[in-house]
């Protein structure tokens, strides 16, 4: 069952497009993009989430990421 979000699809798409634009502008390769995004997620969790909840949130994030990855050919 998909989770509902308190954020509009439009807002999410707008921010995602801005992030992609920065990476594309800098011709960032996929491996570096993933490293940067991973570091951003880690920093957000470590600085914005209570220490008692960090591992649970990281596990949930990892599970959601795995669930969203498809086995078909890349775009």
Task: Write structural notes for this entry.
This protein has helices spanning 9-25, 30-48, 54-68. The model has no long low-confidence stretch (mean pLDDT 93). The longest helix is centred in the middle third of the chain and has 19 residues, at 30-48. It is mainly alpha-helical and 75 residues long.
Strand-helix topology:
Elements: H1 9-25, H2 30-48, H3 54-68
Would you summarize the structure shown here?
The chain is built from 3 helices and no strands. The protein has helices at residues 9-25, 30-48, 54-68.
Number of helices, counting only DSSP H or I runs of 4 residues or more: 3
Which stretches are poorly predicted, pLDDT < 50 over at least 5 residues? none
Helix content: 55-70%
Query: How many extended strands?
Result: 0
What composes the largest sheet? Answer: none
C-alpha end-to-end distance: 26 Å
Over all CA atoms, what is the radius of gyration?
14 Å
In terms of DSSP E residues, the strand content is under 5%
Mean pLDDT value: 93
* SSE pattern, N- to C-terminal: HHH
């Amino acid at each position: 069952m998909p989770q509902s979000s308190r954020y509009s699809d439009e807002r999410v798409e707008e921010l995602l497009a801005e992030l992609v634009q920065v990476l594309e502008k800098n011709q960032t390769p996929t491996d570096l993009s993933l490293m940067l995004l991973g570091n951003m997620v880690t920093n957000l969790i470590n600085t914005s989430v209570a220490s008692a909840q960090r591992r649970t949130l990281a596990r949930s994030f990892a599970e959601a990421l795995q669930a969203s990855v498809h086995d078909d050919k890349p775009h």
